[in-house]
Specification:
9 helices
Length: 318
Amino acid sequence: MDAADDEVVIEAPFLARVYKSGRVERLLGNDVLPAGFDPATGVASKDVIVDPTTNLTLRLYLPDLAGSSSGRKLPVLVYYHGGGFVIETAFSPTYHNYLNSLVAAAGVVAVSVDYRRAPEHPLPAAYDDSWAALRWVASRPAEEAWLSEWGDLGRVFLTGDSAGANIVHQMAVRAVDEGLGGGAAIRGLVLIHPFFWGAEPLESEIRDPNAREWVERIWAFVRPGTVGLDDPWINPLAEGAPSLARLPCRRVLVTVAEKDVLRGRGQAYYAALKRSEWEGEARLLETEGEQHVFHLQSPKSDKALTKLQAVAAFLTSD
């Protein structure tokens, strides 16, 4: 092996390494599962390539429609996976299994987005892919019957965890600025343990300087040349960031976990949204005694199942 392939030149701690040769090694989230029928939930899935030039691929999910009346329309869930913009895909067992369970519980049509990842594709590549995917959904593609026949594009929900929740916020803001088209409307947002940060430490972050350093190193890894931790891409509450009052939806659910280092940022986002002139309904759901994305790591636990039902209820409550 060439010596250049052994020398690490940059690293996102616990996520990925880049070697002098240019090789990228991801330490987690490399396994994949094929689309298909899931007998445990009755949910079917398939993959669709939206843009061959960027290899933008979506995994679509359809719940068991046995007994459904003809012409019935279902809410459309657009899901953005987490992983610090670095690891995991829409096809990983973590997200494929979670989407099967969520689609079955909520009875929605889901679109899981496999966006490009850093470091090969630093931000804004993930945002651009996520936006292209959302615009594709809003276009009511006639060739995609699961969406055109069953999806209610007047009830689109954007959902994601961690970095994916960051994407949810950015897509909502972009929808205001650029419009979705096709008559589609974003009904609600679900931000699960959102990956937000800021230059001014919160009290919980002051108590854990190692956590701050870890987040800061990841942000520098995915956004080289960043203007800092008050970049609106990671701090939606920074001076000059788009106003939360502009969010184009009626409802927002923010979820946090007690032992998550990102907990304070999710709470601050929720509080700022409540203080703003936004006229929708915001809800905060906190799970005691749990860490970041615990529901993905232990999906069969009682707390994970409770959280799944809470998200499903949010998606179907109007």
